[in-house]
Design the sequence.
């Protein structure tokens, strides 16, 4: 009966806290689980990668300089916003082919995963760092520090997988350039809307949608990216990206997880940390 | 736009004559100038043309440090960078000049000896220009005596805006005399001149007073150099050469930070004044952070991967 025109969302990129279209002006068709048209998503180019890395680098000083406690608070705020958009995420996952109850379950897990990593933000320093006993009149501390700008090639699990690779990277103070799942990028852009409205400074997370094979090599070879997470890369493409990443000695986290609902552990949290050891004279 | 064909170019000696001449210049179509500059800025310069443009832009840079915190060490470091912008690649051209405050000229002259790089010094109470005439001339003479090969003077914007064109004219003539063999660049501070008409008038005023270069801004006032303002100045130097046969250079300064910006200026020069101006002798870019971006883009073209600021010197 309603003759209202439908108002559809334009899915764009998320760079530096803004939602630009791809510099190239391209887009690609995203289909649902049954192969029916769902939406057009932006098809990012290498220049979008460059811009995103620039934004992430700019944001790194401020984000890594915040107290871990404050980062934890902001991440928890993200979880609150995620919870507020439950219905939207459930619909979006349902559209990719998941049954309603399964989609609902997946969103629950994603929110819980985000809360779990938010809690780790101010604890990882105590767990991964140490006060070292040394023979001499010194205090000796080892503290974990963020690596820098981390490139993330997200897995195809549209929400839980994405959350599981993004949250640990930023919880420890890194900034991220994320290439979303190629077949299921829509939930990633909705997640970007959540991030944009939850006190997360612009540029801490930058999300690109498009062809993985086109974007990943630029991310892997970029000299201003300090680490790369290859979670969503197919086994046969890993070697080439590792070679490209070796040029500036990036930390590389190879793919390996296929079941994202399993207990995550702290491996991803500590993968993008560097340890700084400081000697301080006692009694000065 | 922009021809002053009907007006006489013989020396005008009285205030009213000068005023009549400058106000007789045709007005600038502001919307047209903005539109033309914006249109030219959309040109796409890629691959080998881009590589050429980057090298040309590097050779046109007046590498500048004009801070209260400048130290001799910083000036020497900047001079070394100007001579070898990218030490890992000897193919990178050297910059056109190093631009410093007058008291740093001697340091720069020592560091640049034998490199062929110009030593530019700001003078005449830069950036405000608010000082007695004697002080301005002494400022200039001492910079030249210390070894400056180029002097960047600021005009008295107060006098210009009050309509006292003769005073501005006489000041430029006097400073030009104090310069001796050094090239004189005249800074208008276009951000304070308000209208494009004023920019055109200031351009003609400075060129007739003997300026070798006209320069947009000090870099201390926003807006600094913009494309339309540079367009108006390029039209002025083009028309001036048509009438008198003398070539005057142009130098936009301030706010030019990216390779893309620099290439836009080069397109503007080529399309407005013509290719004769596309050399470091007639066109300069006053900048500091621009050089690193040019070097990063240059390395991207030569290696095929994006570079980062970690691999270039801080300045």
Sequence:
């Amino acid at each position: 009966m309603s003759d209202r025109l439908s108002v559809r969302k334009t899915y764009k990129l998320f760079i530096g806290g803004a939602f630009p279209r791809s510099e190239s002006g391209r887009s690609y068709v995203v289909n649902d689980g049954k192969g029916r048209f769902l939406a057009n998503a932006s098809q990012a180019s290498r220049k979008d990668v460059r811009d995103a890395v620039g934004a992430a680098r700019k944001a790194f000083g401020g984000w890594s300089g915040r107290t871990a406690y404050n980062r934890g608070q902001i991440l928890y705020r993200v979880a609150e916003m995620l919870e507020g958009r439950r219905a939207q995420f459930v619909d979006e996952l349902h559209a990719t082919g998941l049954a309603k109850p399964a989609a609902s379950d997946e969103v629950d897990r994603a929110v819980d995963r985000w809360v779990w990593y938010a809690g780790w933000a101010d604890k990882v320093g105590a767990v991964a760092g140490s006060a070292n006993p040394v023979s001499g009149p010194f205090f000796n501390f080892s503290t974990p520090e963020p690596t820098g700008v981390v490139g993330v090639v997200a897995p195809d699990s549209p929400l839980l997988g994405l959350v599981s690779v993004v949250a640990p990277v930023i919880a420890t103070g890194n900034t991220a350039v994320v290439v979303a799942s190629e077949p299921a990028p829509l939930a990633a852009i909705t997640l970007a809307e959540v991030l944009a409205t939850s006190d997360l400074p612009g540029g801490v997370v930058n999300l690109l949608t498009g062809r993985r094979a086109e974007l990943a090599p630029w991310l892997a070879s970029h000299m201003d990216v300090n680490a790369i997470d290859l979670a969503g890369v197919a086994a046969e493409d890993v070697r080439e990206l590792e070679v490209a990443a070796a040029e500036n000695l990036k930390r590389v986290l190879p793919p390996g997880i296929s079941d994202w609902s399993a207990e995550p552990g702290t491996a991803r949290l500590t993968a993008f940390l560097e340890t700084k050891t400081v000697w301080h004279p006692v009694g000065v | 736009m922009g021809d002053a064909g009907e007006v006489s170019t013989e020396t005008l000696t009285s205030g009213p004559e000068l005023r009549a001449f400058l106000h007789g210049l045709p007005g600038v179509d502001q919307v047209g100038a903005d539109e033309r500059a914006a249109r030219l800025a959309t040109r796409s310069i890629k691959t080998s043309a881009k590589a050429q443009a980057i090298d040309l832009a590097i050779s046109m840079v007046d590498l500048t440090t004009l801070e209260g915190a400048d130290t001799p060490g910083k000036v020497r470091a900047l001079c070394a960078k100007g001579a070898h912008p990218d030490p890992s690649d000897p193919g990178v051209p050297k910059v056109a000049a190093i631009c410093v405050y007058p008291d740093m000229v001697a340091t720069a002259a020592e560091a640049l000896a034998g490199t062929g790089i110009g030593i530019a010094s700001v003078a005449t109470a830069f950036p405000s220009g608010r000082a007695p005439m004697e002080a301005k001339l002494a400022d200039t003479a001492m910079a030249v005596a210390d070894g400056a090969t180029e002097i960047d003077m600021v005009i008295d914007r107060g006098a210009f805006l009050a309509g006292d064109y003769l005073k501005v004219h006489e000041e430029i003539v006097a400073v030009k005399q104090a310069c001796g063999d050094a090239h004189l660049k005249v800074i208008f501070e276009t951000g304070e001149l308000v209208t494009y008409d004023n920019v055109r008038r200031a351009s003609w005023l400075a060129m007739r007073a003997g300026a070798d270069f006209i320069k947009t801004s000090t870099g201390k006032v926003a807006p600094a150099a913009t494309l339309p303002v540079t367009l108006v100045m390029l039209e002025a130097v083009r028309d001036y050469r048509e009438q008198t046969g003398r070539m005057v250079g142009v130098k936009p300064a301030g706010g030019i930070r990216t390779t893309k910006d620099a290439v836009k200026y080069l397109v503007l020069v080529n399309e407005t004044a013509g290719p004769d101006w596309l050399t470091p002798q007639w066109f300069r870019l006053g900048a500091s952070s621009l050089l690193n971006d040019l070097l990063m883009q240059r390395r991207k073209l030569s290696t095929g991967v994006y570079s980062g600021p970690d691999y270039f010197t801080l300045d």
Q: What stands out?
A: The interface with chain B takes residues 49-50, 53, 57, 218, 221-225, 244, 247 of chain A (CB under 8 Å). Chain A is about 45% helix and 20% strand. Strands of chain A lie at 27-31, 37-42, 130-131, 138-146, 149-153, 175-179, 205-208, 227-229, 251-253, 273-281.
